[in-house]
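Quick one: structure for this chain?
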Amino acid sequence: MNSVAPEELPVTTNVSTDSRFQAAQSVWDHIASQPPFARLIHAKRAFIVPAFIVYAIFCLLMPVLNGLAPGWMASKLGGMSMAYLYGMFLILLSWAIVWLYVGAASRFDAMARQIVEDAASTDAKGEPRAGEGSN
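Got it. Here's what it folds into:
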């Protein structure tokens, strides 16, 4: 068995060499400081936080209702217990949130695409790249 010194082993990394992903920290800082990026983050939070809160409340409410109102949760409506109906409601709520998020995500993607296009056409100081601006 041949032994190889560690310094003779090839060095590999998982970092992409694609130039699209190579940007100086100053470029990312510039992008993050721009109003369109702030609007994107605000739009995402405006959807995700309320959706999470609503879903978390309804998920946590089921065991609370089972503990505090077991008679009501055991009562039947159309041959099914309220607990079973509540569980079905949670599944429908999950799908509704997913459906709403898919619509919102397409808007987020469009906003992000515009931010990337704007960043690609300017340098870290927000100035048009050489040869791309008006003369």
